Amino acid sequence: MAAGLGVLLSGCATSRAAAGAPSVYRAAAPSAALATTPAVLPSPALWHPSSGDFDPRCKLAAVRWIERAGTGPNRRVSVIDAQYGGLLTSSASVLVVTRSWTLANGVVTPSGRTYDVRLSRRSSGWHVDAVHPSRPGPPAPLSSVARRVLSDDRIVLPPAARRDVRSGLVHHTTLAALLTLARDFRIGVSVIRSGHPLYVFGTNRLSDHPRGRAFDTWQINGRSVVDPRTSRHLVTEYMHAAASAGSYNVGGPYLLGSAPQWFSDRTHHDHVHAGFLT
């Protein structure tokens, strides 16, 4: 099973995994624009859930699957974050945000994807059913606001989210809100567009993420949203700031008002969602 996703993580064409393994989708090849650095492969540490995570065994099942499949003689994967894309009683989506490295001809090439890992709860525990890799799209001419987002060291983007911005498919208002928030906060973004479920999990409503009209924040000023030691004041201050920056739909671990402006649920206990209409 690990070998099947290893091909996926390396960016090659993907075939059906061995019997009993979850289905996977064909992943896009790594961007040719990525720099290469002659070096040995890194040895990233295993990811571990926070004590504040709801059902950490669900996240662990998803993350360990990605870690096993992405590690081999010529490849490594490091999990930056794992957040819920949806958490119901018997099914879940875990968004595993990664960076990765591939060794070929003595050169290590960095990359990284975000994986929408679908799981179901069985009597034996959580089982991985399918893995959907991010597909950011090819690079496009950048707007001035996109260039500012990519160069702002207070906006920390994982590889897939950075490629989302480079693709030109992230809405102007979404990018402008990131820049506004970055004046007062250091933002650890987990997901913007690719790697997120197409529909709000468990519904038939289109998510704002695939349309480039939302971003999720897993870390604020270096503090994880899900960490119980993170100040509630910091998280709620950030949520209010997201609303002031133009978000019509702010979700997170705390309910700050009525819908549709505010929401909170089990899925959003580990990150702050900010969605935009135009």
General shape: globular
Element-level helix/strand string: HEHEEEEEHEHHEEEHEEE
**H/I helix tally:** 6
- The total beta strand count reads 13
Total separate domains? 2
- The share of residues in helices is 10-25%
**How many strands, what sense, and barrel or not for the largest sheet?**
7 strands, mixed
Give start-end ranges of low-pLDDT stretches.
10-33
Rg is 18 Å
Judged by helices, strands and strand pairing, the structural class is alpha+beta
Strand content: 25-35%
Integer average pLDDT: 90
Q: State the oligomer.
A: single chain
User: First CA to last CA: what distance?
Assistant: 42 Å
Question: How would you characterize this protein structure?
Answer:
With 278 residues, the protein is an alpha+beta fold. The protein folds into two domains: 132 residues, no CATH class; 132 residues, Muramoyl-pentapeptide Carboxypeptidase, domain 2. Helix content is 23%, strand content 28%. The strands form two sheets. Strands 7, 8, 9, 10, 11, 12 and 13 form a seven-stranded mixed beta sheet that branches. Strand 5 and strand 6 form a beta hairpin. It starts with a helix and ends with a strand. About 9% of the residues have low confidence.
Question: Which secondary structure elements does this structure contain, and how are they paired or packed?
Answer:
Elements: H1 2-10, E1 23-24, H2 56-69, E2 75-87, E3 91-104, E4 107-111, E5 114-122, E6 125-133, H3 144-151, E7 155-156, H4 159-167, H5 172-182, E8 187-191, E9 214-220, E10 223-224, H6 232-244, E11 249-251, E12 262-263, E13 272-275
